[in-house]
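hey so u asked for the seq, here:
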Amino acid sequence: MGETPRDRDFMQRALALARRAGEADEVPVGALLVKDGAIIAEGWNRPISNADPTAHAEIVVLRDAAAKLNNYRLPRTTLYVTIEPCTMCVGAMLHARVERLVFGAPEPRAGAVVSQFRLLDGNHYNHSMQWDGGVLEQPCAELLKAFFQARR
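ran it, structure tokens below
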């Protein structure tokens, strides 16, 4: 599909959410879900504060959106996230029928879209998802890098 003019605006919001995660000593990843040009759910990483290993920013957003819409399927939506999703999160997006994924920086250790796995390239799922990466890549990567440097 290619980056749209609004992608940068939505990614700026995801970066603000990622900063909230960092302030809570969580890995600074932020995400939001958009439908018809409006944000319907927002979230950030919370596995530590929620004592939940599945509480990645993307999962938090999918759960919130599904509850708000009273539907486990989220068609015609775009999920924005500051870092390339992991295998778990890509799987959840596919099951939710998210139409499009937009991420900021690649995640070289566990990224499941371009870095370690290319889960969205196959045609073996019942659903296919469009994706674009590298939107505001530098600020997304710098936020994560600064977080881990401060912890060392």
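Residues 5-23 form the longest helix (19 residues). The two ends are 39 Å apart (CA to CA).
lmk if thats what u needed
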